[in-house]
Amino acid sequence: MRLPGILDQQKYFDGLVDAADCTESSDRLACLRAVPFAKLMAAINLSPNLFSYQGLDLAWGPMVDGKVFESDPLELLESGKYAKVFYTEYFTSKATFVSQIPFIAGDVEDEGT
């Protein structure tokens, strides 16, 4: 699954700012930080989630932002831009490049709690 870009997700931030009544603020992020929890949570709950019609098009997840994620990890793997070594399978003699640095892919129940 590819990560969305920051511009793709801007609509969700704008919707959150609007629902939290921070549209007129000169510093929208500072305004969101000052919003009472109950009001902020109600605004967040208006965003797409797992049970909304968008399904897995979630509003609040990782995205390519140019800082934390400079590029989409899946695109980097597909293009071969990762640490790799040449590996030859013993039985078939098939040669291929594989990752030299172990990485974890997937998720688990209660991840991040």
Structure explained in plain terms:
The chain is of the alpha+beta class and 113 residues long. It has one domain. Helices cover 32% and strands 9% of the residues. The protein contains 4 helices and 2 strands; from the N terminus they run ααααββ. The chain has helices at residues 6-19, 28-34, 37-44, 73-79, and strands at residues 84-88, 95-99. Strands 1-2 form a two-stranded antiparallel sheet. Strand 1 (84-88) and strand 2 form a beta hairpin. Helix 1 (6-19) crosses helix 3. The longest helix has 14 residues, at 6-19. The chain starts with 5 loop residues before the first helix and ends in a 14-residue tail after the last strand. The mean pLDDT is 82.
How is the biggest beta sheet arranged?
2 strands, antiparallel
Helix content: 25-40%
Strands, total number: 2
* Structural class by secondary-structure content: alpha+beta
Distance between the termini: 22 Å
Portion in strands: 5-15%
Number of helices: 4
Give the integer mean of the pLDDT values: 82
Trace the largest sheet across and list its strands: 1-2
Low-pLDDT sequence parts: none
The secondary-structure element order is HHHHEE
How is this structure best summarized?
This protein has 113 residues and is an alpha+beta fold. The chain contains four helices and two strands; from the N terminus they run ααααββ. Strand 1 (84-88) and strand 2 (95-99) form a beta hairpin.
SSE layout:
Elements: H1 6-19, H2 28-34, H3 37-44, H4 73-79, E1 84-88, E2 95-99
Antiparallel strand pairs: 1-2
Helix pairs in contact: 1-3
